[in-house]
Amino acid sequence: MGRQFRALRVADVVHQHLSSKINSNHRPVAPPWLKAVEKIPPAEVLTRTVPVALQPPNPRLRKPRRTYRPQNITYEEDELRQTFFKDHPWELARPRVVLETDGKDAQRYDWSKGLYQDGLALCGECVVQRQMWLMNSGMTKEQAYDVARREFYALRHREEVERRVAMEEARMMGGYFKGSLLVDNMRQEDRVFESWKSWAKRMTAKAEATRGQAYTSFGEETPFGSAPTESADSAPI
């Protein structure tokens, strides 16, 4: 193919190479990427561009192998998320729905009204966005975090009360609620442990009885005479 070629002419050069009849006994095979390159040709410039510097240069990173390393993408909410989930680690265990319709769901929420938003379940991201709005409204980071956290606790308490009331009403109407998978596993583990503990007690009592019987039968009469006893004469020297 040669050294001098354009990026847009890669497919043409390959076709010329495949149609050449230099060696009639050898049938060239088209590379698997040929059709993809014909549909989506590569860029005209083959040189690798240096990313735009969004941060001041770091002298320790001025090495050839780190020249093209992409910079870290950070957002203002990242620090707020880290603080909230560090204080509330169990919020990460709650299931969340991350499905979006058109990618503009965040534009439909008005965080000036509070944490509760139509179509959005209460989660840690609500606290972060509410805190962000309060900070943009003139509050400090700590004050906004306290206000958003107080609203979050109130809504969580309200959800827990509603859940308990709904469960009590359903039980009054004859509803039956089976325990969760974690509770069922713990109950099954308790049953297995109690069964093992009773078996261990029986085996321990049996072993102690066998050991005590061996000492109590020493020197008693046997069908073949008296049991042998050790004497001073037979003691090893």
TrEMBL record:
<keyword id="KW-0687">Ribonucleoprotein</keyword>
<dbReference type="InterPro" id="IPR016939">
    <property type="entry name" value="Ribosomal_mS23_fun"/>
</dbReference>
<feature type="region of interest" description="Disordered">
    <location>
        <begin position="217"/>
        <end position="237"/>
    </location>
</feature>
<feature type="compositionally biased region" description="Polar residues">
    <location>
        <begin position="228"/>
        <end position="237"/>
    </location>
</feature>
<dbReference type="GO" id="GO:0003735">
    <property type="term" value="F:structural constituent of ribosome"/>
</dbReference>
<comment type="similarity">
    <text>Belongs to the mitochondrion-specific ribosomal protein mS23 family.</text>
</comment>
<dbReference type="Pfam" id="PF13741">
    <property type="entry name" value="MRP-S25"/>
</dbReference>
<protein>
    <recommendedName>
        <fullName>Small ribosomal subunit protein mS23</fullName>
    </recommendedName>
</protein>
<keyword id="KW-0689">Ribosomal protein</keyword>
<keyword id="KW-0496">Mitochondrion</keyword>
<dbReference type="GO" id="GO:0005763">
    <property type="term" value="C:mitochondrial small ribosomal subunit"/>
</dbReference>
<dbReference type="InterPro" id="IPR059242">
    <property type="entry name" value="mS23_dom"/>
</dbReference>
